Amino acid sequence: MIKKLVFASAAFLAASTAGAQADLLDTIKERGELICGTLDYLPGVGFLNDKGEWSGFDVDFCKAAAAGILGDVNKIKFVSTTGANKFPVLESGEIDLLSRSVTMTTSRETTLGFDFIGPNHLTGQGFMVHAETGVKDATELDGATICVLSGTVTERYLAEWFKAHGISFQPVAAENSDQMFSMYFDNRCDAVTMEPPYLAIRRSRSESPDSHVILENIIAKSFEAPVILEGNPKFREALQWIHWGMVTAEELGITSANVDDMVKTSQDPVVRRFLGVDETIGADMGLPNDFMVSVIKAVGNYGEFYERNLGQGSILKVSRGMNAPYSMGGALTAPGWQ
Predict the structure, then answer these.
(1) Alpha-carbon Rg of the chain, whole angstroms?
(2) Which residues constitute the domain of residue 286?
(3) What are 141-196's pLDDT values in tens digits?
(4) End-of-domain residue from the set 221, 252, 276
C-alpha cells in the first residue's frame, strides 16, 4: 500500500510539473513580442537594408506569426542567424521561431527536439555548373569540386547521391551563401549545389548569367519550413494554422486588398468562420478570433506572400511551380477550416 502511494505521488508530481510548464505561445503573449531568427543578407528571402528594414519570404512568415498571435506585425524582434548557429540559438531559447529556409527532414524532426511548420516552401536540391565545363547531367560531375553550405542537410544529400551513383566529388565548404557563391563565381569549384530557385537568383545577379547552367537533376526533395522547439503544442498549432490560413485565403479569394470588405459583406459560412466573424476557431486556439484578418492585412494570402518576395512581383521572378495551388497544377493545399 505504501509503495502504491509513493508511486501515485510521484506520478502526480510529474504530471503537475509538466502541466505547469508554460507553452511558448503563452510566454510570447505575456512578453508582448515574438523573437524570430532569420537571414539578413539574401534579398527576397531574408534581408536587412541600411535603413534597418527587414524583408523577404522567411521574414514575412515571422511577420505573419506576430500579426496572428499578437495582433500587431510590429511586435517582433529579429535575430540574424547563420547556417552554423541557427539550431543552437533555437535550442538555447534565444529565439522563439526559426524562419530561415530550413530543410524539413525526418531525422531533424524526430531526433533533434524540433517541430517543423508547413512546409511552406516546396523545392529540391540541384546543381549549377560553369557552362565551359560542358556538363549536361549531374552524373558527369565525377571527381568535381562542389561548393556546399557547411552544417546543412545538403552536405549529406550530396554525399549520399554521389555514393549511390558510384562516383566521387570533393566538397568545398562555405559558412554562408554569400561565401559559397563567391567561391563558385571565382572558379574555386566546378559546381555549386542548392535549391534551383536560389541558384536562379544568384545566376541572374552574376556578371554573366549565360556562363552558368542549372542542371535538370534534382537529387533530393528540399521542403523548407519554419522551426520551433518541441514541446509547445499550442505554439505549433497556431503557427501551422497561420500557414494553412494563408493558403486557404488564396483558395477563398481573400486578399490584403479585400479582406476588410469580406469581413463586412461576405455571407459565405466558410469565409465568415475563417475570418472570425462567426464561431470561435481563433479563440479556441488561444488567439484573437479574427487572427487571420491580421495575418492577411500584414502579409497577404499565400499567393501575395510568394509573388511579392520570390515571384513575378519581385526582382527574382521565380516561378511558383509546386508552390502554386493544387487547382492550378501545384502541390499547395490546406485542410478544411471548420
Answers:
(1) 22
(2) 21-121+224-328
(3) 999 999 999 988 889 999 999 999 999 999 999 998 899 999 999 999 999 999 98
(4) 221
